[in-house]
Each structure stands twice: as structure tokens, then as C-alpha cells.
Give the backbone structure.
Amino acid sequence: MEFDVKEYQTVILAALLHDIGKISQREGGQYQGKHAEFSGNFVNSLRGFFGHDQARQIAELIEKHHETPNKRDEYILHLADKLSAAERFKEERGRYKSNEAALVAVTSRIRLKRDSKKEKYYKLDSLRIDEGVLFPSDEIQVPEGEYSKIWARFIEKVRSLGTYQSSDFKSLYFILKEVGSLVPSATPWEDDEYNRTIPDVSLFDHSKVACAIAACLRQFEEKGLSNSEMSEIINTLRKHYKESNPAAKEEILNSCTFSKKPIFILLRGDIAGIQKFVFSITKPKAEAKGTSKRLRGRSFYISLLTEVISDWIIRQIQLPITNILFCGGGRFDLLLPNTDLIKGKVKDLQKILDEWLLKEFYGELSIQFAAVEVSSKDFFKFEKIYQKAEDELVESKTRKFEAIVEKKDFFHSSEPVSALCNSCLIVPCTSGQMCHQCETHFDLGSNLPKKEFLTFAYGQREISVGLPITFEKFGVTVFLQDGIEMSQFLNGSNSTELFVYRINPEFEDDQGLNFLQENKEKKSISFGYKFLGNAAPLATKDCNILPKLKEPVRSGEVLEFEEIAALSSGAKYLGVLKMDVDHLGLLFGLGIEQPSISRIATLSNNLDMFFNAWLNNICEKVTSKWDGDLLENDPKKGLFKSLFYIVYSGGDDLLIIGPWDQIIELSMRIYKEFREYTSKNPNITISGGICLVKPAFPVQRFSLLVGEVLYKSKSAGRDRVTLFDDTVPWIDDVKSFENLIFFAKELAEQVQNKEQPLSKGFVYFLRKLEKDFKIGRTDEEDINWIPQFIYSHTRRVKKEVEEKLSLRSQVMEKRGKMKIPVSYVSLITRKE
């Protein structure tokens, strides 16, 4: 559809900023006007930014978004706000003024089989990687003066943008995300104590969804969606919000024909073949150098590809960034207008993607779409839309490359293949060389931990500064850059449009959106930020991790697998950790009360923040503890910020490689912090699997093994971890992972105690005893193990050691679970 860009910008800007006045309204706790007036006044104050006419038009739309609409754009904004507000859920609760109520953590309200203990709340602050900001607490009330700080920060950021251009929309989006992610959209101010709003959806999430809806509605012509249709839907929604009886509310929605009209499409995209693609590192041991870098590079390339494709689709359909509801882990959800033009466009885009993926990856990667129609009524139970999308996606996976498979030359290759890439063994390549993709992945893995910016350059470009990743088919080249490279690029590029991500911003140090003041007069440059799990064992100075090798690790280099394993205590093994959230589908489908699009997006983004933003922090803390335990004269002291290589993380899962003993420490730390992060809600749990391998062990094999180990934890009931092929609960049990590892450390320390040693043979005896007498197997256990144990214990364990360890009682209470502590002792005390 052709439309006036400036008019379209006016509508989506009004939708994005329609509730911004809630922050300034709450700033002083005084309510002389409505929030719509505050929002309009703010926009009017930016006439120098937007231009006089556009500022007036945006402000007028915003000021009327709760009034009876008269013009088409007023109908659009009014309906968009109403549909986005489908998340509003009311119940009996305490009353707080709008400037007092803290944002409720949606994780604390997930209900499945177990009762969540109590509500938790977020501190009112700007978004940043800080425990006090990301982790909910018991503090229900916002301290006085906090809204003033948030508002001042928002004003400072917006005024740094210069004169508005359409590319600035992205910058405004990320500014609002920074300052509005912890601001409640609605608060429990109502007089009726039984009908007060639960403040568990942020101002940012509500505004983002309203903008996405408005952007879709603006693409309809009158004949496709008339003003009278929108008016009837709006009137129906007003009645629905006023009614408190659930059955009556449902009846009101069903009484309106137009509320059932499919106006939108939820387009879910899923890249298939990721696991096989990421772990296709097939070089033999003699040529294994660089494997760790290619592995991380491939994983990051997938996340980048997912973003590039979702960005390309919304640009083709002329929608803003708000219409990407979710993007990560090889998946994306987009909100699109349900028009014949768009449906035809989606089919064309699927065909283009199929052809490109087949040509570029030789069938290793494919993409499937699920397009589900969405009506106004569906916004109140959006989990059903997500489930339909998932069901359709499962079916579409059986029809890979359907859009092009009927082409007559699909199964015919006219190019003879003489040799394959010596890394992936898939792409045709000159004998003995790596293909372009594998070279790119190696460069990505080498540079990712050291770079600070990700720059999307659209259109033509004359200079190339940093590491370029070209997606010519999609009209964009992505550059991985440090600060100097990014500045040089901005100063010399003539691309039609640039979008710069700051990776893992430290907002307190760099004010979040970087280089705004320096570059605000340049055309078509927008700025944002991206949280990314990119921890890696990066040497801070030249060092010899492997004394046998002549070539040292250079400062700034990422360690190879053999070097990572060499940092282990005892046996020099790699630890491979895989974890993911339990019952994720149930959490979204049944756990959320009033599962609206905004509330589902809030939970999804909340989990993603842990796995992307916070995981680096956990890796650094475990590394710091390891470093602190080293002797002062240890040459490894102070060498690393992180011991761990995050192969991938995001969405709801992770895979990390590190020294085997520290991977065990890391797994426990991740579990505990995840539980704190998710409000200690017993319905939100995470399972893990750990396997230990030699550094030259084939990547494809250990990726499969750790998946099988994780599956064992899931099959045993979830909220568990499997190590040494034994599955146990994480905590809260005498035979829990935490207690078994603590016991293992006690045993190992005593084995290595020169003054009062515990025989390693006795430790092994504990495991043999367990196997011989089938200890712990309820129906098979032979109780004759008890006299055997007492006899051996009396002869082989000194009295002082028994008093120190309480060995008898510990073995009795942990019987049946000796495999984990005995195996741990065996490895940690091994001399290599």
C-alpha cells in the first residue's frame, strides 16, 4: 500500500508516545490534568525537534486518544490503545496512588500447580544490567522523587537527538525502552478495592504493542476497515472494560460481529536446522585450532540472521521496529496487517528466503512461517494465537522449501563438485580451504567478545571499518566494531541509513545511547542497544596456558578448548553445560492470568534478559571467585574476566563451555540466581545437564551428549540436574546437587590433606559398596552393606577425620547417590 510517510510517522509516533505523560504526571504526585494532556504537552514542547506542524498533529492525536474519535487517525490510535490495554486485569488489592505503585514482577504471578509465594516488585529505575534493577524485591512502594529522575533522563535523551528524521523513530523506541521498562502502565488507584488494576505490565510494553497495532491499522484503506467498524469495536471494548463479571465480559465481546473480524496476522518465523548447523565443526584433531571460535561464531551468526530476516520483513511491509514482538533463538513473532496485499507479500518473501537459504547453506538451514489471523477479541486471550502458530509451525516443518520445491531444476545440479570446505564439509570449496561462511564464523567468534557495537548499514557503502557480515539479498551489511571503528565508520559512510547497537551498555558510564551529541546532525543514523551473552575466556596479557606449546596465548585472544580444559583442577577436561526453562509452553499458555499480547511479551523479554543480559555477570562472578582462590604467585591470577565460553544463550536456554570443575560451580550459581530472578516462584524452574569431555572430543558428539543428559533431567521430573549420569534435585534435599557437591569437596580436601589424609581407596570403596549392594534402590537394596561399611570405616578412617566430616551420618543420609561425590573426587585429585 502506498501512503504518505509523514502522515504514517505521525500516527506511529503518537502511538509510541501516547502514554509518556504518565511519567511526568506522576513526577510530583499531583494530578491537575489527565495523562493524555501531559503527553500532548510534552510533544508540543518538542516543536524544535519534530517541527511545528508535526508536533501539533502528534499532540492533537495523543490528547484525544481517550475521547470519542472523529477522524480516521483518531479511531486508529483509540482502538490501538484499547486493544493494547487488553492486558488490564483487575482484582481485590491495596490502593496506591499512581506515583506510589511499583511494577509487579509478572514472574511472581505465574500460577500452575503450585501457589506462588507472594508478589514481588521492581525498583523504579532506568533499565540497566544491575542486580538492584533486574531482580524483583518485596518493596511495593516507589520512593518519593524517583519519577523526577526517570523523567529528567527521558528528556535528556530525547533532546540529544537533534532534528527529527524518520530514522530517529528507532532511537526514540530504545529511549522509551530504557526509561519505561520498569514504569507500570496502569496502577491500582481505583476506589473499588475489589476492582483495582494489577500493575504488572510496563509502560514500554503497553506503548510498543499499541504502536504495533496502530501501524497495522494505518495500512488499511476505508473499504478494508471502515471508521464505523472501528467505532463499533471501540464501543464494545468500553463496555467490556466496565463489566466485572467474566461471563458477561465474554458475552459482550461475542455480541460484536466486528470484534471477531480478523484484522491482524501473527507471523511466526522459525529457522530449522540450527543445532546441526552450529555444531558442524568437523575438522580432525590435528587441525582443531579455531574450533571454539567457529562454534561461537556460528551461534552468533544464527541470532544475527534471525534479526536480519525479521528486520527485512517489516521493512518490506513498511512497518516499524515495534512490530517485531519477539526475536531470538532462531525465531521471531511479527504483527502484520491482515490484507490481501500483505498475505501475498508474505508468500513472496517466503519464496525469496527459501531460494537464498538453499543457495547459501545447501539445505542445512531452512525457514518456516506460521501465519495466524488475529481479531480484536483475540487480544484478551492471546495465548491461543500463540498455540495456533505453534501448531501450524509444526505442520509447516514437514513442507520445507515448499515455495520452490516444484521448480523443474530444484533437484538438478549443473555444477560439478570437486572438493568441500575442510571445516564444515558441506559447501563446495577449493581443496584444503575453508568456505566463506566458515571464515566469517571464525572471525565472528574471534571478535565478538572484544567488540562494543553492531552497526546495520543499509544501501550503498564506500568504506568498510570493522568486521563486515554481508547480507546482500536483504540490502544490509552488519559491522562488528569497537568504539574507534564505529566513529570512523559514521564519519566516512554514505549508506542511505545506519542503525547502531551498543552491545551490553553500561548506562551509568556511557548514558546508554552513544554518540548522539556527536552525530545528531548527520542524516539517517539511529541508535539502540542489545544485550548479548558474549562472555569468553579472553586473555588480558600474553601467557602460556599450555607449557608444552611454544606459541603463547596473545593478549586479547580467546582461548582454544585445550587451553580452557587446562584451567581445570585435577583432570584436564572441558565441562559442557546445557540448561533450559521447564514447561515453557505451559508457563505462557496456562500460567499467565489474562494472557494478553503485552503480558506474554513481558514474560518473554524478562526471561531473555536473564539469559542474555545477566548471564555474563554470573560468569564473571564465578571467575572472580576462582581467581580469588588462586595463590598470589599463580601465573594464572588476573588473566581472565571470564573462564567460560557462552556458545549460545537467550530466550529460555543456554549452552556454555568451561573448565569442568568451574562449570559445576557455574551451573549452581545460574540456578540460584535464576530462582531469585524469577521471584522464587515454584512454578518457574530450570533443568540442567553437564557432561565432561576431553578437549579434542568431537563437537557434534558432545553437543548430542549434553542434550541427552539434559533430557534425562527433564524426564526425571524437571527442576533437576544430571552429572556423571546421575540425576538429582538442585537444592532442598539431603541428596540434592548442592549437598552432594559440598560433600564431594569435603572428601577431596581431606584426601589431599597431608596431615590427616582420607584414603582415596576408601572413597572409591563407597561407590563400589553402592553398586554391589544396590544401595538406594528401594526394592533391591541389600542391607548387609551396613556392616561392611562400618567394618571398613572403622579400619580405614581415623577418628579425627570422622569427627571432622561426620562421615558415617553423611554416607547414611546420602546413600544411593555416591556416584557424583566419588566421581568428583576422582577427577579433582587426579595428577596430570
